[in-house]
């Protein structure tokens, strides 16, 4: 897991905690992400961070790019946010992708010159 702290976070708070940790790591502001997503103010992003509003699925790719994370990391937190009481979904969210699966992704990217484009 990208942030081990997420494992200790209740499922319904994982997306908001993911955002908090990502902002700390990147030292950017909610206003910068809001602008990237097309919002005029950072109100929506702040609500996501507080857990008072859910992050829409359509924003995951942009959020991942903004924080320089793979979308799989964002997806796992998002899945837990969507169905915190569904233990099967939360279990899948905890294990969206394993280290061996990442290795396959990296090899495929190298073969197709993903990083050079």
Written overview of the protein:
It is built from seven helices and no strands. It is mainly α and 117 residues long.
Helicity level, as a percent range?
A: 55-70%
Percent of sequence in beta strands: under 5%
> Gap between N and C termini, in Å?
27 Å
DSSP summary, beta strand count:
0
Major pleated sheet: none
Structural class: mainly alpha
- Nearest-integer average pLDDT: 83
Number of helices: 7
Shape: globular
Quick summary:
The protein has helices at 14-26, 30-37, 43-50, 60-67, 71-82, 87-94, 99-111.
What characteristics describe this protein?
single chain; 117 residues
Describe the protein's topology.
Blueprint: H1 14-26, H2 30-37, H3 43-50, H4 60-67, H5 71-82, H6 87-94, H7 99-111
Helix pairs in contact: 1-5, 2-3, 4-5, 5-6
